Amino acid sequence: xxxxxxxxxxxxxxxxxxxxxxxxxxxxxxxxxxxxxxxxxxxxxxxxxxxxxxxxxxxxxxxxxxxxxxxxxxxxxxxxxxxxxxxxxxxxxxxxxxxxxxxxxxxxxxxxxxxxxxxxxxxxxxxxxxxxxxxxxxxxxxxxxxxxxxxxxxxxxx
Length: 158
Hints:
The protein has five helices and no strands. By secondary structure, the chain is mainly α. The model has no long low-confidence stretch (mean pLDDT about 85).
């Protein structure tokens, strides 16, 4: 039932996981990195080490978000189907205890769906924050590489 890693640090290591509880999710991340790549290794080798690192992080974040979202969608669909079966079983309960048990299971499934939804929202926010941090780093690198516009000599007008 716990198909998602419990925290961001565990999610961020999916790309390197080749075993363990999240092996399939890690493989999905690696496959998506490859499938989504546009630049060739030769093109990437022409980038600076910092640009290569930023590209790697951006690719990993995008693929991780995509893989986790796909897994969440599949899991939510399965949970929804389970919920439908439980709801349909309520009228066939032969006693009040059986009906109450079914209702308790329905509530538990709904709580799990809500928890997964919250985890996915937090994951999206984490990836968005990481993207902003990468953009800021790229801007700072550009300024460090060319300097500030304030240090340029004034234009000579004719």
